[in-house]
Protein: DNA-binding transcriptional regulator, ArsR family
Organism: Treponema porcinum
Amino acid sequence: MDIQSITETAENPRQLLEACSDLFVALADTVRRGLFISMIESGSTGVSVATLTATTKLSRPAISHHLKVLKDCGLIKARKVGTHNFYYVDINEHIERLKKFLQSAEHFSKIIH
């Protein structure tokens, strides 16, 4: 089977990677990765901006900016409790996109080598 036949029958890894690019951009920043890990560690209860500000020593506006980037790409969500927002990780949709990309890359890698 030649490469052209493969690309016609298998999902294109380039397109699948492009579909995941927003995740990689959002997590490329060291600060955002740290915030993301903090939210993972907080579990489903989430973590407030006040807590993130206290633990990172970043300003509230800086934290809010980084949370917006993570929220805009869909990696996190917010739940309002009283006057506080608690941010938590929600990656189910993204896991499926990443799995598809990795499976496609693995498929192409096995055929080419």
Residues 3-112 form a domain with the Arc Repressor Mutant, subunit A fold (CATH 1.10.10.10). The longest helix spans residues 92-112.
